[in-house]
Structure formats: structure tokens, C-alpha cells
Amino acid sequence: MDLILWRHAEAADGFPDNTRKLTAKGEKQASLMGEWLRERLPKETRIIVSPAKRTQQTALALKCKFETLREIDVGASLPALLTAAGWPDAKGAVLVVGHQPVLGQAAALLLGGDEADWSVKKGAVWWLSSRVRQDETQVVLRAVMAPDLL
After folding, report:
1. Which of 35, 43, 73, 77 has the most Cβ atoms closer than 10 angstroms to its Cβ?
2. Residue pLDDT, tens place only, 24-58
3. Stretch (H or E) spanning 140
């Protein structure tokens, strides 16, 4: 299984939190990363997105169909995110467009084996794969890409 974690792009400050929109910089970040992902995502990738305005706008830049799931909204728990994504047993690839700190927590747990608050840059993607080698499940970091590198 491939698990792609995409943090929403830069958003304006404001309240309520779920209605914050992308800034002009955030729109550019989302567009650049959306283009980068479109060229690389497997055709049957399942895309799940938080209902927050900024994640919805980020996902729209991908120009693909997606599902909106409350389970990965602002304040989502790590178990809720992993369950929603089907980690590690889902077939194919799942792209999660979500928030900190849970995206960083997922990366830390899957790559480091312990829960920690790793930072995921706004608009960045972390691409992880689960594989079995010699009867042992391994997690492989396939890519980390930030929009300012595109």
C-alpha cells in the first residue's frame, strides 16, 4: 500500500478554523503540488480530504475526484486517520489531504516506530509505502516534496 500524506497549503488566519481559505501563496503551492502529484499518482488512487475549506481548496488543485471525510478533519486522531486510510492493508494508493499535527504523527509512527510530533511543511507531501520482505512488514519513504522545491 502507498500512503501519501499531503498537508494543506498556506491558509489565512481566521475564525472559525474550518472556514480558513488559502492565501494567494497557498493557491500557488497547491497548484504546483497538484501538478507534481498528477504526474505520479497511480490511476486508481483513493483520495480522502478533510472537510476544512483549506484542505478542500488544496485538493481541488489536483483536479481529481475525492471523498470528504470528517474522520480526518482538524483535530483528527492518529488511529482515526490510519483507519480512514486503511493502513496498512488497503490495496493500491491512498492520498490523505489533511492537517498537522496528525500528518506528522503518522509519518513519525510509521517511519520511526513511535508517536512523535514531526513537522510537515504547508503544502508538502510525504509518500510512504508498506511492503513485506522476508515475512516482515516494512515502511519505505518514497518521497518528501515541498512546494518551494518545485
Report:
1. 73
2. 999 999 999 999 999 999 999 999 999 999 999 99
3. strand 136-145
Please count the other Cβ atoms lying within 10 Å of the Cβ belonging to residue 140.
13
Q: Which amino acid is at 118?
A: W
| SS3 of 17-51 | HHHCCECHHHHHHHHHHHHHHHCCCCCCCEEEECC
Q: Which domain holds residue 46?
A: 2-149
Q: What is the CATH number of the domain that holds 8?
A: 3.40.50.1240
User: What is this structure's pTM?
Assistant: 0.97
Q: What is the dihedral of CA 91, 97, 101, 105, to 10 degrees?
A: 20
